[in-house]
Amino acid sequence: MINKTLAVVISLVLISSAALAVSLNGAGATFPYPIYVKWNKIFADKTGTQVNYQGIGSGGGIRQFTAKITDFGGSDAPMTEKQMSAAGGDVLHIPTVMGAVAVSYNLPGVSGLKLDPETLGRIFLGRIKKWDDPAIAALNPGIDLPGKNITIAHRSDGSGTTHIFTSYLAKVSTAWASQVGAGSAVSWPTGIGGKGNAGVAGVIKGNEGALGYVELSYAISNDLPVVSLKNRSGRFVKPSIESTTAAADGALSSSKLAKQIAAGDFRLDLTNAPGQNAYPIVGLTWLLVRSSLDGEKGAALKNYLKWALSDGQKYAASLLYAPLPDSMSDKVMKLINSIDTNI
Amino acid sequence: MGQGDIWFKGFIFAFAASIPLLLVSLVVVLFFWAWPAIIHFGWSFIFSSAWDPLADNYGALPFIYGTLVSSLIALLIAVPLGLGCAIFISEIYKSKTGEYIALMVELLAAIPSVVYGLWGIFVLAPFSAAYIQPVLGGMFGFLPLFQGPTSGPSLLTGGIILAIMILPTITALSREVLQAVPYSLRESAMALGATRWETFKVAVFGPARSGIIGAIILGLGRALGETMAVTMVIGNRPRVSASLFAPAYSLAAVIANEFAEAVTELNLAVLIELALILLVITIAVNGLARYLVWQTTLKK
Asked: Where in the numbering of this chain does the PBP domain appear (chain A) (predicted)?
């Protein structure tokens, strides 16, 4: 009897030690956290490799990755050259999924609001202060706009969502680029800060006349009214998974991004992409890994990345992320294959 | 002293010393990490209103202002309310119902601050913008404090939510203090022909005063450091504005908001310097409280 028990205990220990043989630790952006958790669970069931990911924010993710506390990092904002050299220089950005930033508003009785980039920029700069401003009215014929003040709602916490949104504004508005700039946290000319998507949505819901930006997944799951934005083809497009993928396809057709990809650099800015159905405020999220990884851990991480970019992509849409278009994931796969695991 | 006594003394001393050591090490570590910001900005940091993470230009004034003013608003609301409640329960309406009221006030302390924050953003903030601010603006609109456009998330709303959160601290502690006053004092005053108010003023409030100040200061301590609920309703706007209706920011809120995403070394150091300032403010407030309590007990 005792022998039997002992045998069971020993075999349990052996099984668990085999399962724990390789475990990878990562930390960073909170935006992709739900899909990484799903990936990690499925991947562990399939291969026995435990991947842990903590959503501590992109900044924290970059800090821990730089300090080599984690095996990989996660970020919604690409690392700058300076940060990359601080991390040792051998950093690869592996794009995993895409997200879009929706512009939402609170105007009772008004639906189907349309805006163009110039007007959006002037509103966020605080130059357009009222909803019945001629610039907004001209874009929305047939909608009876109230004479209410516009209350801007923005993120108060540093965020990749803010990075994508301000990158877009800086691209379409020279005034924004020179006065505010693009980053995870900026000096907002006007408005109220909300903590997280829920905080911004709370400010929008609680203030008639509010206008703010949230992640597309949050806007969809909470059924928020969203603005149709005029894209480069002159069409007004609503944010959706389809229009996000369309934006990536459009962006990849540009020769500038093609050159960047050919150089193995996937820190792509997908905002304001060309294409009939492209939604203009779209961005990537990245896993940060080193270009040479040692032995067992390196091989496991490489496997994980390959799986995430192939089989893993099919879980994206159900969690309201846009999968990478095939034309991009093929090229990312080449980059992953180039990771040196023989040191 | 026997062998056992020496051992005992040593043990107890180690325990006692560990707490001041903890505080000292906290200050040392904060200083160490904040040092790049301290030498970069110097004293001007405290008086600057700049906050631009892209340009790496920072100032602490809006956060210090928001922290102090929101806590002051909280005290202005919670002290009369909490003290009134405590006096009512312990002096006037001593019954089962009074006990239930006390219990319910204490239950307020058990609600997590994030729940206060959610309630604040979805209920209190819209209510503040739609009713409280217009009424205050109508009555006191001649003061700059109550001018300007109304806004749900604002300095005033932050102060109100803090008031609700420190109410149980002030009420429960004041009640304990009042009940600790010996009954013989009340009976003596009554026997001398004092009215109920006179009895309370002379025989109860006098002896209890220092304890009540202590209760208020503990409440203030909670208000100064409260993070989650405040950041959800204060508006998170780093500007000093004369109007209480305008969005503002607090020290604890900006640290919570920006710490995870602070990337540059200076940005991180600045946030830690703000933590240091918050620590200094709380220690100063506590010191002031000690002084007040000490003064009132000396006078007797």
From this structure: 22-311
CATH 3.40.190.10 segments of chain A: 2-99+283-337, 101-250
- Does residue B18 lie in a domain region? no
CATH of A101-250, one of 3.40.190.10, 3.40.50.1220, 3.90.180.10, 3.40.920.10: 3.40.190.10
Report the DSSP pairing between strands A210-215 and A91-105. Answer: antiparallel
Question: Higher confidence at residue A206 or residue B295?
Answer: A206
Please judge whether B261 and A83 are an interchain contact, meaning their C-beta atoms are less than 8 angstroms apart.
Answer: no
In 3D, which of A40, A29, A51 has the Cα closest to residue A297? A51
pTM given for the model? 0.83
Q: What ipTM, to 2 d.p.? A: 0.78
Topology at the third CATH level for domain A2-99+283-337: D-Maltodextrin-Binding Protein; domain 2 (3.40.190)
* Mean pLDDT of successive 10-residue stretches along chain A, which has 343 residues: 55 49 87 92 93 88 90 91 88 94 94 95 96 95 92 90 94 95 91 89 88 92 92 95 92 88 90 94 94 84 94 92 90 90 68
Q: Is A194 helix (H, G, I), strand (E, B) or coil?
A: strand
Residue B291 domain boundaries? 61-298
For residues B209 and B275, the model is more confident at B275
How far is A192 from chain B, CA to nearest CA, in Å?
Answer: 5
The CB density around residue A171, as the number of other CB atoms within 10 Å, is: 18
* Count of the separate structural domains present in chain B: 1
In the chain, the amino acid numbered A205 is K
User: Considering the domain boundaries, does residue B20 fall inside one?
Assistant: no
Burial A105-126 (b: 16+ CB within 10 A, else e): bbbeeeeebbbbbebbbbbbbe
Q: How many helices (H) and strands (E) does chain A have?
A: 14, 11
Question: Measured between beta carbons, which residues in chain A are less than 8 angstroms from residue B66?
Answer: none
Name the one residue in this structure whose structure tokens are 């940005």: B267
User: Is the Cβ pair A57, B52 closer than 8 Å?
Assistant: no
Phi, psi of A149 (to 5 degrees): -70, 145
- Domain annotation covers residue B15: no
Strands (E), A114-221: 114-115, 151-155, 192-194, 210-215
